[in-house]
Amino acid sequence: ELETINQRLEQEIYERKQTEQDLAKAQARLIQSSRMAALGQLSASVIHELGQPLSTFRNYLAAAELSKAGEADPKLFIQLSKVAQRMQNTTDELRAFSRPDTNKVKQIDLNLVVNNAIRLTEDKLELYKVNLKRQLPESPSLLEGRMQRLEQVVINLITNACHALIETPAPQIKIAITEELQSWLLSITDNGLGFGGQSPEQLFEAFYTTGTQGNSLGLGLAICTAIVSEHHGEIWAEENPAGGAIFYVRLPKTYNEND
User: Fold this and answer.
1) DSSP string for 143-211
2) Is residue 237 helix, strand or coil?
3) Can you say whether the dihedral through the CA atoms of 66, 67, 71, 77 is positive or negative?
């Protein structure tokens, strides 16, 4: 009986070891699958994040080639340098995707964030013949944050608004900043197609897109949500009563980075 029991125990031990090995292999495959999924999403993010500055870069190069007497305006080279630096900053940021962000927040001007984003989307605004209106405070709209990250939010929102204005006879975008007690409220309003009956909440899901141009990866608003969350803010969208859409971003003036 003892021999039978020992044999049974040996068989159970063998089966348990085999199960553990199978589980370890399954976990390894799961980790690899997760890494590949993360790599795919990261690659899509790289394409999305670099698309806008590359488009601006090409436009500046075209302007330099078409300049009078073949001499480019020195200002163009300054702009090219800025766009190239932005692309470098983006790749550096994505390279650090898997590492904790060691860059500390600092006091920045939300007015400057908006103006920089508008300058980087000038090509799209001109392409779609958009009448852009700014309603910004006369004094700096100071808050704690990361300048380039917030610029990307505004760039994405302006770009989305431009795409929504393709079929609008007199396209308009209004960008406003309103001061609240402990925060700033940024609004970007367009008179475009609106949400087409879709729920505004769906727009902020990764890879969800209503784009018809074939150039939208559906990451823009998901990235915006992530960046705004990093700044302890909130982002949402509403139908524009006059037609079109309004996107809101509320950002606290100060926050504890360790919260």
Assistant:
1) EEE-HHHHHHHHHHHHHHHHHHTTT-SS-EEEEEEEE-SSEEEEEEEE-S-TTTT--GGGGGSTT----
2) strand
3) negative
Distances (CA, A) of 243 to 3, 106, 172, 206, 237: 84, 37, 11, 25, 13
At residue 84, what are phi and psi to the nearest 5 degrees? -60, -40
pLDDT at 90: 60
**Total-model pTM:** 0.61
Q: Which of 164, 176, 169 is nearest to 132 (CA)?
A: 176
Question: Look-up: residue for tokens 């704690």?
Answer: 144
CA distances from 27 to 13, 18, 129, 164 (A): 21, 14, 53, 44
State the first-to-last Cα distance of the chain, in angstroms, to the nearest integer. Answer: 63
Please give the helix or strand (H or E) that residue 109 lies within, else none. strand 106-109
Residue 127's pLDDT is 87
Residue of 85 and 155 predicted with greater confidence: 155
User: Does residue 155 surpass a pLDDT of 80?
Assistant: yes
| Residue listed under structure tokens 């509403």 | 238
Distance CA 238, CA 241 (A): 9
- The strand pair at 245-252 and 234-239 is best described as antiparallel
From 177, 174, 109, 175, select the one nearest 137 (Cα to Cα).
177
CA angle 81, 87, 90 (to 5 degrees): 140
